[in-house]
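Supplementary Methods S3. Complex input for the zinc ion-bound model.
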Amino acid sequence: MLRADFHTHTSFCDGKNTPREMVRAAWEKGFTDFGISGHADYSFCDPGFGMSDAVLERYKQELFKLREEYRGRMNLYIGIELDCLGPVQSAEYVIGSTHCVCKNEEYVSVDDTEERLTEAVARLWDGDWYAFVRDYFETEATVYERTKCDWVGHFDLLTKFNEGFRHFDETRDAYLEPALAAMRRLNGEGLPFEINTGAMSRGYRTQPYPGPALLKELHAMGGRILINSDSHQADTIGYAFREAERLAWECGFRRVCLLSPGGGFREADL
Ligand SMILES: [Zn+2]
Ligand SMILES: [Zn+2]
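Predicted complex, serialized as structure tokens:
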């Protein structure tokens, strides 16, 4: 199993554990590479959520210290998860994620609660989930242009509350066409996509993001992948990586990207 995870959160944003606890848990699991990617300032959508510039500075100082403590034992990477529509703050690496859509000058989080999202789709998109899907992926298509991210986080986060396709059918062209248009653009801009098991560990989904149909298409277009847990607590680091690796293999992938201590990506066999 892969012993590297680059999308995790700590108590500096909405995670349960401190960076020290997260890093220790990764080390105890035998991980060789571990990245922390706190949420950027998300106040424009959810007041008080994410790291202000001052908190980000303290976060980096804490992680620099931990990196020195673990030097020679585990590679520690200092990242940030930017939102497509949010402020562009910097760290050593950037995950580009789309957590919200702006409609009629209102920001709608797609991963907050099912009730809030359903209410917003009814009110702002006249209950047309496919119109909401189009707006989401049109936004997501711009994530590299806006954030200059290193890879795409949870590409189809808008499916968080769609297990069993209870709001929209992910096999229909009305879903797949805007999704694939965004994927083609971002892949063309050179970005890898992460397979993200976060909604599995939190009990929302039985499969990782992105869904298998999208993953197969990503492989067909020559795309690259990472595998990350999006852990918000120490006991879910590396969650369901075996299933994620199997799914990646079934979708045609044979290699996975990892961050390198010297910067950029290296690749490992699945
Ligand atoms: Zn996210
Ligand atoms: Zn995250």
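The longest strand covers residues 75-83. The longest helix spans residues 53-70.
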